[in-house]
Predict the 3D structure of the following.
Amino acid sequence: MTTQEALFKYTLRLGDCSIILAQRLCEWTSKGPFLEEDLALTNIALDIFGRGKSLLEYAARIEGKGRTEDTLAFFRSDRQFTNYLICEQENGDYAKTMIRQAMVDCFDLLLYSELTKSKDETLAGIAAKSVKEITYHKRHSFSWTDRFGNGTEESRTRAQKALNELWRFTGEFFEVEEADEILIKEGVAVDVKSFQNKWETELHALFEKANLTLPETVFMQTGGRKGIHTEHLAYLLAEMQALPRMYPDAKW
Amino acid sequence: MSDSQGPLWEVFVQKKAGQPFVHCGNLHAYDKEMALQNARDLYTRRGEGMALWVVPTAAIVASSPEDQGSFFEPSNDKVFRHPTFYPMPDVIKHM
């Protein structure tokens, strides 16, 4: 694998994680628990979409085969998406959406903070902008997790159920593949292992404060970065891609 | 109105350091942290300010419309209370 191929793969994966998660979050738009929260989450989804767009745009540029961020987003099938499985999981209730978000935000903040030091200036630039946004997203999802966990018996039960369902998708965050190894050596990619302990410590503290317990599952489901997804991604893409696929020449 | 959106909060935005906090609207939230976050999302997305206050609406003591006469009208005929008889230097603004 050449450095260029590795960089394409790496950037594409970061971009895929962003747009798939953003698409999921957008499903809440106009259906949020109340007006203020609806706006807050839509805002967050937009931030993440923006990041995904920049990343896919850059990925297309690295690849240099005439594809654009749009062709990457709208004209690939589920097997060609490399996002982590947690990003595509269904929203469920608001507790599930917030627990998922807390785990992703915690990871993303550590990841993108490190990525600001990347030798790749474009990635470092995208990361610098994202860190400010994710800092806010994390504050939002962490406070909701705390609120659900320490709220009513009903809200705690729902948050706990979400945590039980989603925890098995978090192992994928810390996998390192060939593309990562090449780029870590070059000082371009982030070595996720370097902050795995920190991520665990932060989340353990959050869940403890929120009166939630981590499931004792040892099995971690994985496959996203190889294009092996859960059943949910194909449905998400069907909705996201329907219009450009039906009218490939459609313009805003 | 009793509903599931949480109590009302009033939002005040400060445009720049040193300027007054100006009331700009209200919102629903269950606690202080959520009120502050919602205020940020609802009222400062387009660079409207650099600092925020949120105050529970219930904590505000307001005059009522019926009090208008007794509260404010007596000042109308007492022009001597206004410092309009002094020449003001041009550099003084907002008097």
User: Anything to note?
Assistant: Residues 105 and 138 of chain A are 5 Å apart (CA to CA). The radius of gyration of chain A is 18 Å. The longest helix of chain A spans residues 35-63.
